[in-house]
């Protein structure tokens, strides 16, 4: 695997400091227990805005502090898109859902990264994979395989925007901001890899 095919650390993950929004926006969050560990889900009135892996108390606290700063205030008790995301992710992990319909709020992504992630979300179906170079070609930037890797590492909506489906050209699974074991489990769930023996 080349350096270009390794994902960069997530810039919108629990350690990121997104630029604050210009005005107060309504948002809410919840934690969802899944086979890959607890996920923190955050949504606005526009849609699901962030999924954070390994959302233990410390990681969740840091992510929530940044979201509160970004959206200009504390969370609400609930938002409809959050309930939709929770239902759909639960169904996905139970093997009953292959396509997410929850609206997405792209506030935490911009520029080339947002363009790549949006193509990934619409063009790479459940059970499929794509290479970093192929994804660069699909967005019309054939020399941008390394930038595609960085875009995957900055994905604020992993699982729903399936960066786990981006693999190395040498046949390896590539990098992953949520950890390689998490990526293996997601690919096994979708039938791309054999299920772990134990």
**Mean of pLDDT:** 88
Based on Cα principal axes, name the global outline: globular
For the biggest sheet, the summary is: 3 strands, antiparallel
Structural class from helices and strands? Answer: alpha+beta
Q: Proportion of β residues?
A: 5-15%
What spatial order of strands do you see in the largest sheet? 1-2-3
* Helix percentage range: 25-40%
Radius of gyration: 16 Å
End-to-end distance: 27 Å
What is the element string, with H for helices and E for strands? EEEHHHEHHEH
| Overall strand count | 5
Poorly predicted regions: 1-17
Oligomer: single chain
Q: What's the tally of helices?
A: 6
How would you describe what is shown here?
With 198 residues, the protein is α+β, with helices and mostly antiparallel strands. 34% of the residues lie in helices and 11% in strands. The protein is built from six helices and five strands, in the order βββαααβααβα. Strands 1-2-3 form a three-stranded antiparallel sheet, with helices on both faces. Strand 2 and strand 3 (48-52) form a beta hairpin.
Summarize the structure.
The chain is an alpha+beta fold and 198 residues long.
Key structural traits:
198 residues; globular; alpha+beta; 6 helices; two-stranded parallel ribbon
Protein topology:
Elements: E1 27-32, E2 39-44, E3 48-52, H1 57-71, H2 80-93, H3 111-123, E4 130-131, H4 132-138, H5 145-153, E5 166-167, H6 180-189
Parallel strand pairs: 4-5
Antiparallel strand pairs: 1-2, 2-3
Helix pairs in contact: 3-5, 4-5
């Amino acid at each position: 695997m080349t350096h270009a095919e390794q994902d960069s650390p997530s810039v919108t993950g629990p350690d990121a400091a997104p630029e604050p929004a210009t005005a107060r926006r309504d948002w809410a969050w919840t934690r969802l227990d899944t086979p890959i560990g607890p996920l923190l889900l955050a949504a606005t009135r526009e849609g699901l805005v962030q999924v954070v892996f390994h959302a233990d108390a410390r990681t969740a606290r840091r992510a929530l502090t940044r979201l509160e700063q970004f959206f200009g205030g504390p969370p609400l008790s609930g938002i409809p898109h959050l309930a939709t995301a929770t239902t759909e992710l639960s169904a996905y992990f139970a093997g009953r859902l292959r396509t997410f319909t929850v609206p997405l709020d792209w506030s935490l992504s911009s520029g080339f990264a947002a363009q790549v992630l949006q193509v990934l979300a619409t063009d790479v179906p459940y059970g499929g994979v794509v290479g970093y170079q192929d994804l660069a070609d699909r967005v019309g930037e054939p020399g941008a395989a390394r930038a595609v890797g960085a875009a995957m590492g900055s994905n604020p909506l992993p699982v729903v925007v399936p960066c786990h489906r981006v693999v190395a050209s040498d046949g390896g699974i590539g990098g992953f901001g949520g950890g390689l074991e998490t990526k293996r489990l997601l690919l096994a769930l979708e039938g791309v890899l054999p299920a772990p023996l134990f």
